Amino acid sequence: MSSPNTTAPRHIRLTSHSGGTGAPSLLWGAANPAVRGPVVGTTTSREHRNVIGTHSGSYSVYRALAVAAGALSRSHKADLTNTSPTDAIGPYPQWSDPERIVSLDPWGAMVADVFAEELKAGVDIRPTIAVTKAHVILPEVIEAVQKGRLKPDGKMLLPSGAAMVTKAAIEPVWYLPGVAKRFGCTETDLRRVLFEETGGMYPELVTRGDLEVFLPPIGGQTIYIFGSPRDLANPEVELTARVHDECNGSDVFGSDICTCRPYLTHAIEECIRGAQPREAGGRGGVGLIAYSRKEGRALGEVTKFLVYNARKRQVGGDTADQYFARTECVAGVQDMRFQELMPDVLHWLGVRKIHRLVSMSNMKYDAITQSGIEVGERVNIPDELIPADARVEMDAKMAAGYFTPGEVPDARKLKETKGRELE
Ligand SMILES: [Zn+2]
């Protein structure tokens, strides 16, 4: 393995000026993939690049480290043999509406098929979406089987509690004019702020107005489908769905200050039951979990833990009436998740109706319905699944407009709802 110090060019290649005329054209929202053109974020043949930024989201930085450490050749080209999707998704009519999907590439899983010619001609086109199959085994689902809430059907849910899923990983691909429109700002302002707030990381944002697509260095999404992916696009088939934002502390480590994991596993149970055949006590539909990497309301985990300390140490202790104020003190805002881009993944899947939305968030509900997807029933988290210390979060959110079929806590109740002490 050679060191990049010996193979890398001595001069720095700026990407802020047009690299030439070799780049395939990219017409966002075109129905025909040949007209739409591939997303090319390669760092090797820069004359082919037609986007700002590069692939793999935040992991692009690790790729740079691998090159710097001499572990990865910068000319490595992915061998995509046998990597094609296990299930075909789309194309759906939503794919050809340039305003319906602005934060992912709907053709991202199919590049080997639809851009076969360009690939053959040597253009380094990478999939931004991968679709595979898996068994998921969760203690909460095993418990649901043991307690008789779920009945194994031998196909979708095994007696062991393992559930069969189709899953997809999705990297962010932003069509800047569309993203700006979603957030009600001008494209010029969006480009400038993205440039400045990343410490000037992508000069093309301000120098290359001709490049309209940006591969941002952020986390993407993972979806889990219970049942047939095709059924997601059929409004006649009952869809149970949850859109969930990452919370490592609860989702993975079982921290009890919030309801994230209990809500997620409750939703998975609902999705399994929703997709199981009626003979097995199911609803004969399809289930979907869309998981977004937006740790700690997209404020990050450091901010989140600072807020926990501020909440627990404030005079009077951790009370529901101060829940949002404490986040705002540390972060400057209550929430940076901005659900505006979230429905894109649903449109990629062809979803037109969610019969049962397993979420109480008014922000998610509003974003989904405003994007043109009909929502039927809203399913809340059962009270017995809310950890005692998470009551503060739950009451504060319900008072702020989260959906609840029960009573909305008033100002007096919010002062009374108190969390555990720090020590
Ligand atoms: Zn959480």
From TrEMBL:
Keyword Protein biosynthesis in annotation: no
Record-annotated GTP cyclohydrolase N-terminal domain positions: 11-197
Q: Which domain of life is it from?
A: Bacteria
Ranges where the record places region Disordered: 1-20
Q: What class of enzyme is it?
A: hydrolase
Q: Which Pfam families match?
A: GTP_CH_N (PF12471), GTP_cyclohydro2 (PF00925)
Q: What is this protein called?
A: GTP cyclohydrolase II
Source organism: Ramlibacter humi
